[in-house]
Design a protein that fits this description.
The mean pLDDT is about 85. The chain is about 65% helix and about 0% strand. By secondary structure, the protein is mainly α. It is globular, with a radius of gyration of 23 Å.
């Protein structure tokens, strides 16, 4: 009887171990398949202009739960048809080392960590334009370690496959500028009644200043903080190198 119980216990242990191994293999296969699909889509973005992104779809779904009448505003515009003022403003505001780094601004990350530790909460992200694009194209707004790992892997893919000009073109056409407002053409029309190509230095700096919190600034356009940020960006624009 004791031998039978021991054999039964060993059988259960071996079965459990086998199921754990199978589950782990299945999980790893799923991750590999997902990353391969992301890789294939990044390659496609060499030529293909996306009309929507994972982040865009998530945010629109949430907005439409609050207001079913909210519609997406987005109009793709090619890189040469975007004002150099705007290109310089976003570089000056979001990622001054964009042309020099391989997707990660390690000095910026260190500064952001120091700010967050000092404040005791997340007040700065230190994300580059490439990292923001990775999140926008494929991920969501959650700030979990797993999402940050995915973001890092996808950022490496983006930097390895796409050149800086294409990365920047994608970024400028998909980032959020308010509720349902995506991309610089939609933003230029909504806020200034003009095209992305005709944006002035002030308009460009103003839109760049909105990027960290676009929905708030959409209804607080006279904010003193927004005006201050706009002035700072205007002073920095001349030194900004663009692809």
């Amino acid at each position: 009887m004791a031998s039978l119980r021991r054999d039964l216990l060993n059988f259960k242990k071996s079965s459990l171990k086998l199921w754990i191994q199978r589950g782990l293999v299945a999980w790893l296969v799923m991750i590999a398949v997902w990353y391969f699909s992301v890789f294939a889509r990044v390659v496609a973005y060499i030529w293909y202009d996306p009309s929507s992104t994972a982040f865009m779809n998530e945010q629109l779904a949430e907005l439409q739960l609050e207001n079913a009448h909210i519609q997406k505003r987005q109009e793709w515009v090619k890189y040469p048809q975007i004002s150099n003022n705007l290109k310089r403003a976003l570089i000056a505001s979001e990622d001054a080392k964009f042309l020099d780094h391989d997707g990660f601004d390690w000095d910026g990350i260190e500064i952001a960590l120091e700010k967050n530790i000092k404040k005791g909460r997340v007040v700065a992200g230190g994300s580059t334009i490439s990292q923001q694009l990775a999140k926008n194209l494929f991920l969501n707004a959650a700030r979990t370690p797993w999402r940050k790992l995915d973001e890092a892997v996808i950022t490496l893919m983006i930097e390895a496959i796409l050149d800086k000009q294409r990365i920047y073109e994608l970024y400028l056409n998909v980032i959020e500028w308010g509720k349902g407002i995506y991309g610089i053409q939609a933003a230029a029309k909504y806020y200034f009644g003009t095209s992305a190509q005709k944006l002035t230095s002030y308009q460009s700096a103003f839109l760049a200043a909105m990027v960290p919190n676009p929905r708030y600034y959409q209804t607080h356009r006279n904010s003193s903080h927004l005006r201050q940020k706009t002035s700072i960006i205007m002073r920095r624009m001349r030194a900004a190198d663009i692809p």
